[in-house]
TrEMBL record:
Keyword annotations of the record: Methyltransferase, Transferase
Annotated organism of origin: Balaenoptera acutorostrata (Common minke whale)
Domain of life: Eukaryota
Protein name, per record: Arginine-hydroxylase NDUFAF5, mitochondrial
Keyword Transferase: yes
Domain Methyltransferase type: 104-182
Family: Belongs to the methyltransferase superfamily.
InterPro entries per the UniProt record, alphabetical: Malonyl-ACP_OMT, Methyltransf_11, SAM-dependent_MTases_sf
């Protein structure tokens, strides 16, 4: 299915860079359980992906991981990264000079984007996620929302339904994803006490590995050795270890009468090469005044 709509998309890749900020002991505020406003089953069955797509990730396992994370009593403790990225995506939506009657969040989790949007910008917000527990524990928000249980790979909507489509920290586990996104990126860097705290947080976020060919078990000695190497190679002077979450964005939106249409290709009357002369033109204008 092709959605002709605005689509800030993202991918998440864990890399290692110098630190900028620390993993907080807790993040966010307690959220009220707003429950389901509407639920429709759209979760795919095993092996039902498009025959043209790569089958790298176990989507059923990812659903279980996200459901487990959403059930934990301290789930808010692990929301700091998703809260931050959700806020940044909302800021990008506000940069578009128009409103959106119908919008969609693909892989919404607990509603990390919707909580930052207002009714003046979005009329009705559809939130889809593969994990029913995430939808049941959605954050409180201002805009009217409809929660839909659905797999990101099999969205139950007709083409051209939405004016805006967003997604935050979900599509990196999707098998049927187009070519890797190469748009301008954000890097969110976090300091952790050690490798095991980093792994704990990834599990708490529901971001544990779900690749089909993952190793089911690593021996304790292997884990301790890896932690020691990590600290030796990348550790900070205070004993902490850094990790960087690299966020990829792509943004576009459906045409609206309130916005100017783009000029036709080839209709420009000035080339980019002429722009280098702009300083000379401005200097001559100042001299003539």
């Amino acid at each position: 299915m092709r959605l002709q709509a605005a689509s800030p998309l993202e991918m998440l890749r864990l890399t290692r860079f110098p630190p900028q900020w620390r993993r907080p002991p807790a993040a966010g505020v307690p959220a009220k359980n707003v429950g389901f406003r509407k639920v429709a089953s759209g979760v795919s069955s095993l092996g039902s992906a498009s025959p043209r797509s790569l089958n790298i990730f176990d989507r059923d396992l990812k659903r279980k991981q996200k459901n487990w994370a959403a059930r934990q009593p301290e789930r808010i403790k692990f929301d700091y990264l998703k809260e931050e990225v959700g806020s940044r995506i909302a800021d990008r939506v506000y940069d578009i000079a128009r409103d959106f009657p119908f919008a969609l969040d693909v892989g919404c989790g607990r509603g990390y984007i919707a909580q930052h949007l207002n009714k003046e910008t979005v009329g009705k917000f559809f939130q889809t996620d593969i994990a029913e527990n995430a939808l049941k524990n959605a954050l409180e928000m201002e805009i009217p929302t409809v929660n839909v249980l659905a797999d990101e790979e099999f969205l139950p909507f007709r083409e051209n339904t939405f004016d805006l489509v967003v997604s935050s920290l979900s599509l990196h586990w999707v098998n049927d994803l187009p070519r890797a996104l190469e748009q301008d990126t954000d890097e969110i860097q976090v300091n952790y006490p050690g490798m095991f705290e980093l792994m704990e947080d990834l599990q708490g976020m529901g971001e544990s590995n779900c690749a089909w060919h993952r190793k089911a078990l690593l021996h304790r000695d292997t884990m301790l050795a890896a932690a020691a190497v990590y600290r030796e190679m990348y550790g900070n002077e205070d004993g902490s270890v850094p990790a960087t979450y690299q966020i990829y964005y792509m943004i576009g939106w459906k045409y609206h009468d309130s916005q100017a249409r783009p000029a036709k290709r080839g209709s420009a009357t000035v080339s980019f090469g002429e722009l280098r002369k702009i300083n000379d033109v401005m200097s001559q204008g100042k001299k003539s005044q």
